[in-house]
Amino acid sequence: MRVRAALLSALFLACGESAPPPRPPLVVPTTQASNAPIPPPPEARADGRLPPLAKPLRYAIHLDVDPRKDTFSGKVEIMVDLPEETAHVVLNVRGENIRRATVRIGDSTLPLTVTTRPSHGALEPDELVLSAARMVPKGRVALVIEYDAPFGKTLSGLYRATDANESYAFTQFEASDARRAFPCFDEPGFKTPFDVELTVPSDMLAFSNAGEASHAVSGGMTTFTFAPTAPLPTYLVAFAVGRFDILTAPGTTPPIRFITTHGRSALAKTSLDTATAVLPLLAKYFGIAYPYAKLDLVAVPDFGAGGMENAGFITFRDDAVLLDEHASARQKHGMVGLMTHELAHQWFGDLVTMKWWNDLWLNEGFATWATYKIVDEYKPSFGAKVDAAASAESIMDQDGLGSARAIRQPVASVGQAMEAFDGITYQKGAAILRMIERYAGADAFQKGVHAYLRDHAWGNATADDLLAAIDASAGTHDATRIATTYLDKPGVPLVVIDSVDCASGKSIAAHVHQERFGPLGKSFPPEPTDPWNVPFCFESAARGAKPECKLLLEATTLTASGTCPAFANPDAAGYYRVAWPESSIPPLMKKLDAADDTTKIAIIADAWAQTRAGKLNGRVLLADVLPAIDRETERHVIERLVSILYELSELVDDATWPAFSTYVRARLGPHLAQIPAGTVDDEQRLLRRTLTYAEVDLGEDAALLKKLDGVAKAFQSAASATLDPDYGQVALELAARSGDPKELQRAVETAATPQAHAIALRAAAGVVEPAAVRTQLDWALSPAVKLQDVRGIMWPLVSRHRSRAVALAYVRDHWDALRQKLPGALGRGLVSMAGFACTQPALDDSRAFYTAKAKTIEGADRPLAQALESASLCVALRDHLLPEMKASLRSSGAGGPARR
Ligand SMILES: [Zn+2]
Predict the structure, then answer these.
(1) Which end of the chain is more exposed for a tag (fewer CB within 10 A), N or C?
(2) pLDDT at position 23, please?
């Protein structure tokens, strides 16, 4: 503890920060008990919070963990402050068998009786009511609880994972699963130090948030004692047990290590190098050194998410971070983004934590925003700026639903906390921050972030604290004015360009007003009394034009110098849609070359949104918007256009499919022909990957598919070292259409590395024949497939139009078996399959089936509502757009091979 404190103060002296606040000692004062009558315990609260009977100050946790056994045992001692005398304390548990509970008051100990009950909205008991036979006086007391518990079955709490026949134990606590590992006050607002001690078999190692202080061996078991942590909320506590290997980065401050399962440490080098390079960039941006004494990065062989930002002990899904020199560009980009996101959380989320889950966006939106910012500095060639624009544009599609939720909204149950981990929190949150940064200026924004982190270090804060800090440094109220209209209500503002006047030849006058964007099938009432504070910008499409910007609350006229046509929302910096008159679209698309890549993304996304709103004819989309692919060279812009082709493919009927395929080939084929066969850069690799898949999948390019068989064979052979891995992987996926499902399974089960495993898994999910689809789904439900991989098999089979009908029918026929494999919240994603319906009978059928199923899964209500609404919008769009598409494709004389 002292070694660590000295290290920390040395670190902080370097940049003028203070060390963490002093920790309360685990010593309790003697106090006087009263003889007041014993009231009953308070009921579970409707807001999902614990009643304020006790405030935790410090935890001492001792766990006996042997991952080869089915259960673990523990003793937790929690120093609490009782604000008033009480006979009851309520905290959280889930699944533990409590053997003994006492309260220590000074020198005396009182036994406590134990009852459990569900918190508001929970499907299982998760509140622990401890009751004494007499009143316990106010002040500091220690709750001491001994228990045993089964290891988790849903990749949450303290759970086991196997790699190469070795057993390991890991934790995953966010949002509300620390309570499965130890009784605790499981709310993010309670930040306290933790003293962790783990007793494990002596052939294993144990790690946790803080560094090891000492260890002792006795009777074949080793007890690891860790230094006390800095103040942490329960969801950021973490530990791991097993026969690990360690790869240490040489000479870094803080010490950085990669912890892997046995025999895998050499694969961690690329990720470790990335962490070592990115951490100083983050520290520089935040103006505060890395807050903790050490940094462990942990590759977990069975993991529900991509990564988890536990303070000083970040866990990752192993196939996302254990990459060798043959990793594809897609895998490398993914790793760098994931690593940066989790590292950014060490400041945003860990050092300063949201007060409650309603502000989860502060954690996730900020980490997402910071990832684009820092990756762009670390690897400018990745195009992270364009990624940021593309992701903001795509989340607007989800935010256009009537069932969309506000970024900041009440969370009153464990299920609602889980539902908050969605695109609105991550992507819309990041987009709003990007918009505020643009409007406030990058320097003022950064200074505000510095002040926010300094003022709330080691504690908790709210979104309003951050906005006030940015406003203070910018000397305006714009951050708060903009954000308050965006954070608390769902939806996307639509800036309608009523008219454009270019008559002067020197300036453009645009009259605009705002509405709420609504796609076909969902119209919103105009909201004149509750508009967004939209930072609206537009500029002439002439090169070098300066944008005119205005905070837009009501209808107004803006004037920009230059000539028509004009671009709106340059750089896609604003979170809003723009509706041009239909007649403006063709000239605008002709001028697209003059726009920045980010602006192009916004123009294309706006045109597609207007099509989905029924305000842009399908003919204009097919004849003027999508042919932009033909001239475009930037990878992200082409990918955005290809994604529209995919969305259109959902609407196309069998009779129209050949014409649609011909249209797709006319767009994509020439691009593919231009990519050289030899060495290409990452951008070309990624582009070839996207185009190759779409050319075969939507374009029915039989000659290319045949050629890819050969590419796939070469990729699997010794020649693979010289082949572009992105091309090899997409070839493998497409060649798997005619592959033997059992052989594809064997490739997964015998893969030598997590990276090879991930590639083989994608291929195994590439089958299309009905019998093969069912064989792969049977396999997904078997014990041979890890929990983390079930989704990787099922989702592609359900998403691809060739295998969808068989896969969806399989899901219904095997629902109980699926839920057995994916119990609890692991099965939450299954209800999203209701969203694949695009005809009214299929939608009615989905609604009936999945509505009943969602009732048994925590946190599934909103995903189901969104899936059903997406499906109903698909029905409306299909009815409207398909006839226009048919007419347009017919007039262009397209024809071609039939589907399948
Ligand atoms: Zn995150």
Answers:
(1) C
(2) 66
CA distance 629 to 625: 8
d(CA 426, ligand 1 centre) in Å: 8
Question: Quick check: helix, strand or coil at residue 559?
Answer: strand
| pLDDT of res. 526 | 64
Residue 209 alpha carbon to ligand 1 centre in Å: 17
| Spatial CB neighbours of 700, under 8 Å, sequence gap ≥ 6 | 658, 661, 665, 896, 897, 899
Residue among 411, 305, 407, 406 nearest 357 (CA)? 411
Distance CA 724, CA 681 (A): 10
* Burial group, residue 300, by CB count within 10 angstroms (0-12, 13-18, 19+): buried
Q: Using CA atoms, how far apart are residues 730 and 732, in angstroms rounded to an integer? A: 5
pLDDT of the residue at 13: 30
Ligand 1 centroid distance, CA of 305 (Å): 10
Using CA atoms in the order 868, 873, 876, 882, what is the torsion angle rounded to 10 degrees?
-120
- Cα of first residue to Cα of last residue in the chain, in angstroms, is 66
Ligand 1 mean position, distance from CA 308 (Å): 7
Count CA atoms within 13 Å of residue 868 on its CB side: 17
Q: How far is the CA of 318 from the centre of ligand 1 (A)?
A: 17
Cα–ligand 1 centroid distance for 728 (angstroms): 31
Rounded distance from Cα 13 to ligand 1 centre (Å)? 29
Q: How far is the CA of 279 from the centre of ligand 1 (A)?
A: 16
Contact present, 830 and 820 (Cβ < 8 Å): no
Rounded distance from Cα 686 to ligand 1 centre (Å): 25
pLDDT value of residue 896:
47
The per-residue pLDDT for 677 is 79
Residue whose token pair is 């605790």: 184
Exposure string of 448-473, with b = 16+ CB inside 10 Å and e = fewer, is: bbbbbbbebbbebbbbebbbbbbbbb
Sheet arrangement for strand 534-540: 548-552, 534-540, 566-568
Helix (H, G, I), strand (E, B) or coil at 67: coil
Between the CA of 106 and the centroid of ligand 1 the distance, in Å, is 41
Ligand 1 centroid to Cα of residue 334, in Å, is 14
How far away, in angstroms, is 200 Cα from ligand 1 center?
Answer: 30
List per-block mean pLDDT (blocks of 10 residues) for the chain, which spans 900 residues: 31 43 58 78 96 98 98 98 97 98 95 97 94 95 98 97 96 97 98 98 98 98 98 98 98 97 97 98 98 98 96 98 92 97 98 96 96 97 95 92 88 89 93 94 97 98 97 94 92 93 88 92 73 91 84 86 90 95 93 94 96 96 96 95 97 96 97 87 95 97 96 81 89 95 96 94 97 98 96 96 95 96 90 94 95 90 92 96 96 56
Q: How far is the CA of 360 from the centre of ligand 1 (A)?
A: 9
Give distance in angstroms: CA of 420 to centre of ligand 1: 12
Distance CA 733, CA 725 (A): 12
Q: Where are the beta strands (DSSP E) in 556-641?
A: 556-561, 566-568, 577-579
pLDDT at site 22: 66
pLDDT at 599: 95
**How far, in Å, are 302, 331, 679, 712, 863 from residue 717 at the CA level?**
28, 20, 19, 9, 42
Counting DSSP H helices and E strands in the chain, the numbers are 29, 29
